[in-house]
């Protein structure tokens, strides 16, 4: 399989007539982990939802290409089948639908090619992935996100990612609300999947998850734009000095 490439070119996005993302450009390739950091209201989650096709967000200008194909012309389900994946900041509860049934439906939708994987084959694969993420087997029988702790919700997102094997994974504040043990397990799950066939975009406020993920690139987003990019050391500098330091540096 070829190395994936996601290209975001001068993207401009509005919500209810207000421009939120203001000319953002970024390229993510397979084998790379990119982190976007920024204060509340900078447009980070807007970027994530726009990439997956949420109807609330209106693309005013720019391009998003996945392996040269126009993502913005695709419906959300087609984006998922083509290999885009979003781990939500706030996963929703779906009472009455078990984790196992939800994951099997998603797996068949993305990888089935019109032919469903058998229940036995899928459950074997599910048990293997759950064991690798240190998730108890009883988890598969619970209703999706119902009564889940913050850490359980995020582990489930990583479990989805492990099963679906996307080409580009977007993780929107996956570290939110996690204790140290859960944070390590989530990070280890992502690290286990790192390969030339997967590009990762991690959106976060804090650098603590980056200690475990070790991103190749760190980007700082403010007021809808990427204002600075660098390596892992940029996140450490930002944590030490804060966003006010960067605002003064760029004259914001």
Commentary on this structure:
The protein has helices at 44-52, 76-82, 99-111, 119-132, 150-164, 180-193, 208-213, 232-241, 243-250; strands spanning 5-15, 18-29, 33-37, 58-66, 69-70, 84-87, 94-98, 143-144, 168-172, 199-204, 217-222, 225-230. It is built from 9 helices and 12 strands. Strands 6-9-10-3-11-12 form a 6-stranded mixed sheet, with helices on both faces. A 4-stranded antiparallel sheet has the order 2-1-4-5, with helices on one face. A two-stranded antiparallel ribbon has the order 7-8. The chain is 38% helix and 29% strand. It has a single domain, classed as P-loop containing nucleotide triphosphate hydrolases (Rossmann fold, 3-Layer(aba) Sandwich).
Strand and helix map with partners:
Blueprint lengths: L4 E11 L2 E12 L3 E5 L6 H9 L5 E9 L2 E2 L5 H7 L1 E4 L6 E5 H13 L7 H14 L10 E2 L5 H15 L3 E5 L7 H14 L5 E6 L3 H6 L3 E6 L2 E6 L1 H10 L1 H8 L2
Parallel strand pairs: 3-10, 3-11, 6-9, 9-10
Antiparallel strand pairs: 1-2, 1-4, 4-5, 7-8, 11-12
Structure summary:
The protein is α/β, with parallel strands linked by helices.
Which descriptors would you attach to this protein?
252 residues; alpha/beta; Rossmann fold; 9 helices; globular
Low-confidence stretches: none
- CATH first level: Alpha Beta
Tally of DSSP β-strands: 12
Q: CATH homologous superfamily, by name?
A: P-loop containing nucleotide triphosphate hydrolases
Encode the helix/strand succession as letters: EEEHEEHEEHHEHEHEHEEHH
Strand content range: 25-35%
Computed CA radius of gyration, to the nearest angstrom: 18 Å
